[in-house]
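Blackboard transcription, Thursday session:
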Amino acid sequence: MVAALTDDLFRYAFWLCRDRHLAEDLVQETLLRAWRFMDRLRDQAAVKGWLLTTLRREHARLYERKRLQQVDLDVTTVLDEHSRGPGSDAQVSELRQRLFALPADYREPLAMQVLLGCKVAEIAAVMELTESAVMTRLFRARKQLQESMGVNVVVSG
Amino acid sequence: MNCLEFRRACLSHPRELDTAQRAHDNDCPVCCRFAAEQRAFDGRLAAALAVPAPERLAERVCFRRGLRARRRLRWLASAAVVALAVGASFGVYLSLPAPMPVRAFIAHMKIDPLQQMPPDPAAKVELAQVTDALGLHWQGGVGKLLRAKLCDLDGHQGAHLVVENHGKRATLFVLPGIDVAGAKRLQHEGMSGLVVDTPQGAIAVFCPEAAQLAGLAARLRQAVRWQT
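(Written on the board underneath:)
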């Protein structure tokens, strides 16, 4: 179970904090915590949600504990070469940069939905939001991303 | 279902379209094209979000978990060793004989007035039995022995003797293996007392003249040879 989820958890953590080393620490802490409370995780279906919630809390705790300096990265931020991955084409690379610049409120539900296949209800539960709030964020995230790449998203009939 | 609703749904939850939304997807060619574009965009989005994970991350997490467990085990072992050491020290402390209070001599003289009793002709025989019982060797030289008895002082066995010292009676105690706590000089019903700790045990002398106590105690120390 761990092996199957570790990579996806890492990717989610990466898009949460936008730092590979921090993301790795978050995943490790989350999984170590999960092992401690393994007996409570009887429902396999709930494991993903539990892990995501734990990782989010670890992330929040990390900022509380270390008082990490938060710097808003602008659109021109260059992604770490390791984040590009082998075979990345220019379009994917550009999209990553746009994702990097996307506000965290939009980036996070988008990562959960596209990367982890979470449904709106699951995202709402993890982020402690209403489903309509999640849908609004997802809508704005996709619209903003496409418009930043010069695509005119027409939502009116 | 109108186009606006359908497109909003496409942008917020493209994989969770309900029956009405799927029907609109089939019926409206413009929205169908829009939906196809969004699906293509989501495909690129998925590729962009899928940053490569560090190699063998799961293995490293497992290793770290084992490391933490070992550290916790080591800590528990150390705590157990410390607890055992403290417990053992406390046990040893409790098993040590408590120092005997000096008032035990006075208390004993009150209940056993050997000093007032007439001389015992068989005192030397009694003394031999007492010293044998206590593991002592008596060399004499303290004065004329009048009485000798094996007594119990506050739970400790000792020799209770009465001798003649400078024409007056003196009471002596010899207690092997005993520490005595508290004041070393005493007064009791016209008698002065001196209690002396020695490495092998305690001795106490009582006589009417306080000035004679030190000399008497010194002679008693020389008279006793501790064998234990």
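Lecturer's comment: Residues 15 and 43 of chain A are 27 Å apart (CA to CA).
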